């Protein structure tokens, strides 16, 4: 493992990743700082971040990085573009590839065709960015090869004319959450809140979490800490879970029909706290 990769984040399973940092492949200087950040998962971005004239060079840059010790996800260009096939052909041989994020996913077969061009078992994260993609989310979530769903907020808003008000985007977010559950996937990844840090980003994470989403994209390394905090169990939740589990272990009696669901929630919070290293935070 390259020494610049954050060891805590590198050890965390991607199904639990909260912060997903997009690092532009337009300049290899973006890669190392992203990998050293607190991002749970890093995505080298060959799509939105790279103009058409720079696609081939960006692809070479990414493959070189993933062949010389770096490990990361890669956002590849959509299946309808001229770059998709070349992206996958190059990445299929890159030893440091953790998985791909497929831009502009609208149909389930797009994920399957992408997975088939990669090494067996390479996860595909479906980035849903349009009205058609949202309406097909359940089928996409159930497609062979789909690892997790993500919400491309900016392109979805351009496609539909929706504002960034949480109410305007509630249907799309809910659709991805329900689709993920039906497809037995981890919780979906929300889109970025561009330019936000501090309290503004923590507030955005409250919306993400309240909708049932468990990850969030971001464009700045400085945003990762806030997302990790905002999408983790709170101190009060961890304390509650700890107390309930201790009482259960000591022989607490099931009192009513709500006990078993509360116990399951406490066990989930405890497991997440362990995975994120929060018990002593």
Question: Can you characterise this structure?
Answer:
The mean pLDDT is 92. The chain has an eight-stranded parallel sheet with strand order 6-5-4-3-2-1-8-7. Helices cover 46% and strands 14% of the residues. Helix 10 (198-210) packs across helix 11 (224-230) and helix 12 (235-249) crosses helix 13. With 281 residues, it is of the alpha/beta class. It has helices at residues 7-11, 31-36, 55-66, 84-91, 108-116, 131-135, 137-141, 153-160, 166-182, 198-210, 224-230, 235-249, 259-276, and strands spanning 19-24, 41-45, 72-76, 97-102, 124-128, 146-151, 189-190, 215-218. Strand 2, helix 3 (55-66) and strand 3 (72-76) form a beta-alpha-beta unit. The radius of gyration is 19 Å and the shape is globular.
Q: Residue ranges: pLDDT <50 for 5 or more in a row?
A: none
Fraction of residues in helices?
40-55%
How many strands? 8
**Average pLDDT, all residues:** 92
Main pleated sheet: 8 strands, parallel
Oligomeric nature of the chains: single chain
- Described by the principal axes of the CA atoms, the overall outline is globular
Biggest sheet: strands side by side, in what order?
A: 6-5-4-3-2-1-8-7
Q: Give the SSE string.
A: HEHEHEHEHEHHEHHEHEHHH
What's this model, at a glance?
With 281 residues, the protein is an alpha/beta fold. The protein is built from 13 helices and eight strands.
Topology:
Blueprint: H1 7-11, E1 19-24, H2 31-36, E2 41-45, H3 55-66, E3 72-76, H4 84-91, E4 97-102, H5 108-116, E5 124-128, H6 131-135, H7 137-141, E6 146-151, H8 153-160, H9 166-182, E7 189-190, H10 198-210, E8 215-218, H11 224-230, H12 235-249, H13 259-276
Parallel strand pairs: 1-2, 1-8, 2-3, 3-4, 4-5, 5-6, 7-8
Cofactor: Mg(2+)
Signal peptide: 1-25
Keywords: Lyase, Magnesium, Metal-binding, Signal
